[in-house]
Design a protein that fits this description.
Blueprint lengths: L8 E2 L1 H8 L3 H9 L7 E3 L2 E5 H15 L4 H12 L4 H5 L14 E3 L1 H8 L5 H10 L2 E4 L2 E4 L2 H12 L4 H36 L4 H35 L15
Antiparallel strand pairs: 1-3, 2-3, 4-6, 5-6
Helix pairs in contact: 1-3, 4-7, 7-9, 9-10
Length: 249
């Protein structure tokens, strides 16, 4: 095993010094199960770089105003997350349709994105939806664009829990749209392309902007209809589209 591959290990005093905390604090974190148990060799406890990363994460989250109880909940959600290989795994037989760029974050960097909205409950929902996965001591978000859009929506005053609930609902509707497009393309384009000896990747590149254009056009027109109707209902007006009377005053 090379030096680079060997896991670096520390005794408790060395680990505490590297993490910038006291040995007493380190032992307190261990008792609270904020860090995993060390490897024991007789009476000696050996810690490694994963413990060091966890301690630095705890310190960073404390500096951002999180409580130890809240950090414990975040860590529990973090440890129950799906592996990044499951999140990003693709069938090697087909090119990727998606153009999204995953982004790797430390837990404290993710907390910086959403401040006090970075709760264990929201983290658990994000993991469940498939926005996030765990890779060692880091978190991977499936899409830089989705992450930035989520932060922007939270910045507009929408709670992160509501953004995630909407994301879950959008995922269900988009899956249905994708099934429609996939069936259309497989039945009428991709199968024939293979017969002609055309590379599937080239066909995907040609079809991707067309599918995006259809979805974007339909979404923009649907948003016009929904926003107009919703605003008129909220302001007490009638709408020709729904025929609903104004709400009670």
């Amino acid at each position: 095993m090379s030096e680079a591959d060997r896991v670096r290990e520390y005794r408790v005093t060395e680990l505490a010094e590297r993490a910038g905390i006291t040995v007493r604090t380190l032992r307190f974190y261990r008792e609270r199960k904020l860090i995993p148990p060390p490897r024991r060799e007789g009476r000696i406890a050996w810690y490694n770089d994963h413990h060091l990363a966890r301690l630095r994460t705890i310190t960073a989250l404390l500096e951002r105003g999180h409580t130890l109880g809240g950090i414990a909940e975040l860590i529990a959600a973090f440890e129950s997350g799906r592996d990044v290989g499951e999140l990003l795994g693709l069938d090697g037989g087909l090119p990727s349709w998606s153009e999204e760029t995953p982004i790797r974050l430390t837990p404290q960097a993710l907390a910086d994105y959403f401040d006090d909205e970075a709760t264990a409950e929201n983290l658990t929902v994000s993991l469940d939806i498939g926005y996030l996965a765990v890779d060692g001591d880091d978190i991977v978000h499936i899409s830089q664009r989705l992450l930035d859009a989520s932060r922007a929506l939270v910045g507009q005053g929408i709670p992160l829990s509501a953004v995630l609930a909407a994301g879950r609902e959008v995922r269900e509707h988009v899956d249905a749209i994708a099934e429609t497009f996939a069936t259309l393309l497989i039945n009428h384009v991709l199968a024939d392309a293979r017969k002609r000896g055309e590379e599937v990747g080239e066909t995907v590149e040609r079809l991707r902007p067309l599918a995006k254009s259809v979805v974007d056009a339909e979404l923009s027109m649907a948003m016009d209809r929904r926003l107009r109707t919703g605003l008129e209902e909220r302001t007490g007006g009638r709408t020709e589209d729904t025929g609903h009377p104004p709400p009670d005053q």
